[in-house]
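so im writing up the methods section and need the Substrate binding domain-containing protein record in one place, dumping it here so i stop losing it
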Amino acid sequence: MEIGIKILNDIICRFSKRYPLINLDVILTNDLIDIVKEGYDVAIRGGALKDSNLICRKIMSTKLHLCASPDYLAKHGVPGHPDELADHTLISFPYPSPWALRLSRGDESVDLQAQVKFRTNSLDLVLKGAWKGLGIGVLPSSVCSTDVKAGRLVVLLENWRAFDIGLYALFQDRKTPKKVDLFLDFLARELADIEQTFI
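--- predicted struct ---
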């Protein structure tokens, strides 16, 4: 839902303005809705997808970052290696499982070992917790880029890479109605432009 609030709402409004004859029924929720049963044309979902009979089209990818406020880092120090995160507190979104994150650099990979202060299904809460110095936030570029560029957050362990998070459009049939094709193409173009602004 928060990806809708952060990114998709403006795109949907621009689409509606460009195609005023297409009626939209937009539902923002973190719940997995059966779009076939509920009669929706498209679902937009982020993260790891479960198997389904739906057609899947990747429309955006965002990197995952470890971010902390300058105040937090002044008090607790800046980790130079993933092993040092054991001495830090993390704030996480439960992805892809309640807590699993591997960082890689070349041939080396490390499973993250740290105290998780809290888990939440709200990326905004992870962001706010990191701002307030509660710990190191695990955040996608789509959520943290503005705050990193403004200096409110610092990206840690930049030479290490976590997995990317995909944003996907799911729909029922390869022969989609023209309005769905227009929407998906518009969405993909707009998201490609936005993706270029991410850290």
